Predict the 3D structure of the following.
Amino acid sequence: MYILCQSHKREGSYDKAAEICERLVLRDPEHMDYLINLADCYRLAGNPERAQEVTERARNLNPSDAHVHRMAELLSRR
């Protein structure tokens, strides 16, 4: 499913990618790759508030994760 999510994301189908990634997060709510990818899908889909919520969730799980910091940086540029 993760590959399918990435495929939709590459095609610009960010809402569909987010939907798939949400299911992945439901299955494994502490998986950092899923959380960061979901936040990125929301960001690209034009939903920065939701992207920020997911990023904060990831930050709470692993405050030192470089991908979390990168996503937070991208979101701060809006």
